[in-house]
Design goal:
By secondary structure, the chain is α+β, with helices and mostly antiparallel strands. The chain contains 11 helices and 12 strands. The chain has a 6-stranded mixed β-sheet, sandwiched between helices. A 4-stranded mixed β-sheet has the order 3-6-4-5, with helices on one face. A two-stranded antiparallel sheet has the order 1-2. The relative contact order is 0.16.
């Protein structure tokens, strides 16, 4: 392939882009004044009175060969930040990098990835209002998402309270499993199960948690279970206990960890072990490395009153989050610098 230009010379051609957009059916909303149905230099959306707009962006390289499925996973991943804050999705803008190639191949890949993303956005009544596409060495995709919520209902990470229980809604292990898949060490059914899990939206789970007086919530992504829990702990200035024996794990993740296969982000995440009060004891547990495993389209971590936990877990199971469970408790802040105790006792 001849040398390819940078800057705006790297954009995907307007004919290709127009043909792709014309094949999409993005959700239409009354609060979108200018979107893909009336393209302009920028999208224009309104914020209803009494509500605030929350914004988030995610973008990463492809780790799945199927562009359509990759688009679906990325859309679910990108929407989760909005859902974790209690908001409903409003609009999204796409960022796509398509590998250099013949025009028809570029067009097909762009169409497939956008079709996957738009189908997920449509399910959540979020409007695709614009974006940017360019050529590049590797397939990559992301979405900038906006959501709406009443100001007084906005849910933040730092709201956890003493005696809250910590709930997780999905199993973990995508980081190690896809690292193993890249090495040809993962069984096909492990990867199929992981993809199925990543395709499950966090929307209904967030609504359920809110119903049971959730105090704090976040989604589990690149920094792993421990990393995202520490964000909540530091914001609330409290301590927590994690029950490692009940941590839900994707099929095959324990095996790939045992093989010594980790995500390339794992070493950076493991530096957070300094927050653990009993590291020598905790490292003996085979699932300990999974606390640092980066997740793509992972579940939610939330804290809520212990008295509401059983009913909440039961409803989450009814909604399809069959691995949802209590994985820890919130404790008063101690005098120790470390804030996390890993409990290795067997569940009763």
């Amino acid at each position: 392939i001849a040398m390819r230009c940078g800057g705006c010379g790297a954009k995907i051609g307007s004919n290709v882009l127009s043909r792709v957009i014309n094949q999409l059916s993005p959700h239409l909303r009354e609060d979108v004044l200018l979107g893909l149905d009336a393209p302009d230099d920028a999208a224009a959306v309104t914020v209803p009175s009494g509500k605030v707009q929350v914004q988030s962006v995610d973008y990463f390289r492809a780790f799945i060969d199927d562009p359509f499925v990759f688009g679906q996973v990325t859309a679910n991943h990108s929407l989760s930040d909005v859902f974790a804050m209690g908001a409903e999705a409003q609009a999204a803008m796409a960022i796509a990098t398509i590998p250099y190639g013949k025009e028809n191949v570029v067009e097909q890949q762009l169409l497939e990835i956008m079709d996957g993303a738009v189908r997920v956005l449509d399910q959540h009544k979020a409007a695709l209002v614009g974006g940017h596409s360019s050529e590049g060495a590797e397939l990559a995709f992301g979405l900038s998402v906006t959501g709406l919520i009443e100001k007084e209902r906005l849910l933040a990470k730092g709201g956890m309270q003493v005696d809250d229980v910590i709930i997780i809604t999905k199993p973990v292990g995508t980081g190690t499993l896809f690292a193993a898949e890249m090495r040809g060490k993962a069984k096909g059914r492990w990867i199929v199960d992981a993809i199925d899990c990543m395709l499950v939206s966090n929307h209904l789970a967030a609504q359920c948690l809110y119903k049971y007086d959730v105090h704090a919530c976040t989604d589990i992504t690149g920094f792993g279970v421990l990393g995202h829990l520490l964000e909540m702990v530091r914001a609330a200035q409290l301590d927590i206990t994690i029950d490692l024996n009940v941590l839900p794990v994707l099929d095959g993740a324990a095996e790939t960890i045992e093989m010594g296969i980790f995500s390339s982000l794992q070493p950076s995440n493991v530096r957070l072990r300094r927050a653990v009060k009993n590291p020598q004891e905790a490292t003996q547990h085979p699932h300990y490395p999974l606390l640092f495993d980066p997740q793509t389209s992972g579940g939610l971590l939330a804290t809520l009153p212990g008295g509401h936990a059983d009913a909440c877990i039961a409803e989450l199971h009814d909604l399809g989050y069959r691995h949802a469970c209590i994985v820890g408790q919130v404790k008063p802040q101690s005098d120790m610098l470390e804030s996390v105790h890993i409990n290795l006792d067997q569940p009763r």
